[in-house]
Amino acid sequence: MSSVPRQKILPFFLPMSGCRYRCVYCDQYVISGETEAPSPERVRAELEKFSGGEGAELAYYGGSFTCLPRKTQAAYLQAAQPALVAGRISGIRISTRPDAVDAETCEFLREQGVSTVELGVQSFSDEVLRKSGRAYGSKQAKAACLRLRAHGFRLGIQLMTGLPGDRDSLARDSMRNSLELGPELLRIYPTLVLENTELARLYRAGLYQPQSLTAAVALCADLLAMATAAHCPVQRIGLNPSPELEKALLDGPYHPALGGLVREALRLEQIRRLLRGYDPATPAVLRFPQRELPLVFGQKRAGLLALGREYPLLALEPDAELPAGLLIWEQGSKARELPEEEYCCQRREELAKADARMGGCSYME
Ligand code: SF4
Fold this sequence. Notes:
Radius of gyration: 22 Å
Bound molecules: iron/sulfur cluster
CATH topology of the largest domain: TIM Barrel
Shape: globular
CATH superfamily of the largest domain: Aldolase class I
Structural class: alpha/beta
Order of helices and strands: EHHEHHEHEHHEHEEHHEHEHEHHEEEH
Strand order of the largest sheet: 1-2-3-4-5-6-8
Mean pLDDT: 94
CATH class of the largest domain: Alpha Beta
Oligomer: single chain
Strand content: 15-25%
Largest sheet: 7 strands, parallel
Low-confidence stretches: 361-365
Distance between the termini: 31 Å
Number of domains: 2
């Protein structure tokens, strides 16, 4: 499943630093758990102790890096140069907004050793972007992604679900748009209602209703299937859990292991697809890769219990020889298999047809 290559990252959070606007849902102080940005000197000192090696990156998250004064950006990027030269890191990652990466900025970032840029696109629906206070449109977001790729950056795209004005088909359109732009990594964040945000005000006024956890898991499983079918890794689903976040949470699809829930939901659907046409009143065997047992069994054994209810005579057999993502159903001399990628491609096609039937999409031109 879109298995994410392990990469060592040394993250620093610059909460809301450089942000020109306050997006309706955002409070980076509670999202990151940091109350203030570290100084470049502290970054330099931490890097002295860090030995990430090949592929490791220093990352600046939590704000709009390229909206900071150039001098401040340069100070943060210069702090990483000794570690870059010594090979303790291989590159620098920053996150920023789509309306803050013009050509001159791209050139500056490249000169300073930035290798990966994560763009908080959130949605490719103009209406959703407007209602979320993002202050840019889908065309601008697309142009920013293409510009970053043209300048040789690894591109990361962050998307959100459940934003004001959003619906499942729009979120899937956003994923389709993202994948067409060739990102090397994705992140998906279902919208939470946090205290001290405009969204909290809208929620209290009855003008905003967040996704339920069940709805968010189902939609994120769609998005994950689409990304998997396109071989694009999803690096994270859901915000990092923290006591600060839980304290500020008013409502919304929060779960400390949301990504796990989504991956388990996708695997359960893959199993159900493989078992289509199987008579559950007859004994059969389901084989799956041994190391994916936690994925099949699920948190609190939810997957195991669901399979037990639906297919009481199905024996589950972990198999150390099976490659990742492959499921095999066997009954006497009959057998069928379903690799994960094939299932995800099927699901992607079905979703495309269903969304087209629902009246097309809000694709950017
Ligand atoms: S979502 Fe990003 S751009 Fe918007 S306020 Fe938060 S950190 Fe700033």
